[in-house]
Design brief:
alpha+beta; four-stranded antiparallel beta sheet; globular; Alpha-Beta Plaits
């Protein structure tokens, strides 16, 4: 991995299916975005949370992508299906792997 970013989306129990479909619809554009190397999805069943494990060429690429998603309204559209709304999305910018530790 070049630059690891972990994004977590906690769904309301009754809207997990909608969140899964939203991810199916949105992630092809994410994977095609300049600088995106890969995006893998994981479901934490105990909390109805979808985690995205993302690898980016640079953290600037990921920041540009996030701004694009905000501008195009994806976060707003997810607001009603997330436990705690769009503000509950957690983004961990881990950055590059450290080889010598």
């Amino acid at each position: 991995m070049k630059n690891l970013v972990i994004v977590s989306f906690p769904a309301k129990t009754e809207t997990l299916g909608l969140l899964k479909q939203s991810m199916k619809d949105a992630l092809p554009d994410t994977r095609a975005y300049p600088g995106c190397i890969s995006v893998d999805t994981y479901l934490e069943e105990s909390t109805n949370t979808i985690h995205l494990i993302e690898d980016w060429e640079t953290l600037d690429d990921q920041a540009a992508y996030l701004n694009w998603r905000i501008e195009t309204g994806l976060l707003t559209s997810l607001d009603p299906i997330l436990e705690g709304g769009a503000s509950s999305i957690k983004i961990k910018i881990c950055g590059p792997k450290i080889e010598n530790i």
